[in-house]
Amino acid sequence: MRQPPLLAHFDPETSVNSGQVFLWEKSGQAWYGIHADRVVKFYRQDGALVFESFPEERQIERSMFRLDDDTDSIFAEIAKDPIVKKLIASYPGLRLMRQDPAQCTISFVCASNTNIPMIRRMLGTLAKKYGQRIVADGKEFHTFPSVQALHKASEGELRACGLGYRAKAIKAAVGAMADGSLDIEYLKKAGYDEARAELLKVYGIGPKIADCILLFSLEKLDAFPIDVWIARALASHYGWLAGKKMSEKLTGHQYIEASKAARTYFGKYAGYAQQFLYYHMRQDAGKKW
DNA sequence: ATGCAGGGACGAT
DNA sequence: ATCGTCCCTGCA
């Protein structure tokens, strides 16, 4: 039985498990996620996908899972690279997601120098403390905190959520969004270079985190974030970053050069290629998230 | 038990 | 342009 066209390159379970979003969990047969001020849910029924949201927002999945993207041309573009071409076949259904910019920014500021289970814990604690309680299907959830709610919190209170030194950076990020110096709508319209430069002005946002925010929430599909896993992929599969040991972190200069090279090589959808590489490296290492 | 790594970024040399 | 440091937790 053939999948309808919409589902040919779309499996939300793979997508929410690919390290780009943090606040998703499976309960029974359904997956539940926190998307800004809503709880979102999906499950399969007789082979078809069903989406729900609380409170209800019609077709929220179209935006969230980028279902309007022309995946034929996107995949054709990044499949010019033979390795990525194979990964597209290996992981059918993996898609980039479109995150809420504020949630995405706060999430990735929390991501510096830590691991995914820790990020999940930090964000979960923030949600419980500053988000709104929502009961869906008899289960309790907490929405992602608003910028205003976090803006009112002190650095000390944020630290108490297990953020460590990141509390100062969260203060800076929500402050910039609250006072308008970091203007999300402007950043969406701006080009990659300009939006990136604006993000880098915020304390706690460096090159890597900026690229994540640009790719996952600001429509910059050419952004190519390089974390330790992507650095390993570039070194082992592409022969880039020559001479760098696997255990070493990238220097600022190395990041700039490698990211520029990758953006040129993979093209205007480089970020999509990055997601396949990232997912593959993690799968290969047997990571359970 | 001490060390180290885990989706980095900052500040001082 | 490099290098130590930053909170925190799990694991060797």
From TrEMBL:
**Record-linked InterPro entries:** DNA_glycosylase, HhH-GPD_domain, HhH_base_excis_C, OGG_N, Oxidative_DNA_repair_enzyme
Q: Which domain of life is it from?
A: Archaea
Give the E.C. number(s).
4.2.99.18
Some GO term, biological process aspect, for this entry: which one?
base-excision repair
Instruction: Please report a single Pfam family linked to this protein.
Output: OGG_N
Q: Which family does it belong to?
A: Belongs to the type-1 OGG1 family.
Q: Which SMART domains match?
A: ENDO3c
Annotated SUPFAM superfamilies: DNA-glycosylase, TATA-box binding protein-like
The terms under GO molecular function for this entry are: class I DNA-(apurinic or apyrimidinic site) endonuclease activity; damaged DNA binding; oxidized purine nucleobase lesion DNA N-glycosylase activity
Sequence ranges assigned to domain HhH-GPD in this UniProt record? 110-282
This protein is called DNA-(apurinic or apyrimidinic site) lyase
Task: Describe the reaction catalysed, as an equation.
Answer: 2'-deoxyribonucleotide-(2'-deoxyribose 5'-phosphate)-2'-deoxyribonucleotide-DNA = a 3'-end 2'-deoxyribonucleotide-(2,3-dehydro-2,3-deoxyribose 5'-phosphate)-DNA + a 5'-end 5'-phospho-2'-deoxyribonucleoside-DNA + H(+)
Keywords, A to Z, come to: DNA damage, DNA repair, Glycosidase, Hydrolase, Lyase, Multifunctional enzyme
